[in-house]
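Appendix B. Chain record.
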Amino acid sequence: MEQKSTKPFAKIIKRILEYRQSGTVLDAGTGEGAHALFLAAQGFHVTALDTISENFQKIEEEAATQGLKIKTVMGDVLELDKLGAQFDIVICTSVLHFLTTDEIPLAVQQLKTATRERGINVVSAHTIKNEGEVRAHLFEEGELQKYYTDWKMLYEWEGLGGPFETKTGELIQRHRTELVAEKI
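Structure tokens predicted for this chain:
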């Protein structure tokens, strides 16, 4: 079996290492687990959450190949309170734009509630600047940051992200909004 890279898909994940060197992580909407694998390889205790159970087999196989431990949990970003746990770091990248406009406040509240005091949220999503992109919700400029006015903003950025390869091999770029915020 070819070893899968533990390189994070989103560059913002590397920013975590600027603010935290250890702790518990919830990767909410983990997908195929690139971020979870990267952070587990850095020594973090990672829980990978997703609504697609097929992703867990891939993550668990890759974690075993690399000698990493990752807890996988079937769940939804809208129901993080059902986990009954809080984490030092909660990640939610490339998930929120799949939710409806009405679901966004609940999702962000769930991310914040799942975060321990002095913990951080790492969040990114697509913006309205992606002409022709069809998603349930594309963020307006500054919209994501408004949900975190009661937190300390450690990093925020909006712009055209670097190119990434889709599952079909196509290289594309998307306008994104990103933030790292600390619960105070």
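Further analysis of this model is presented in Appendix C.
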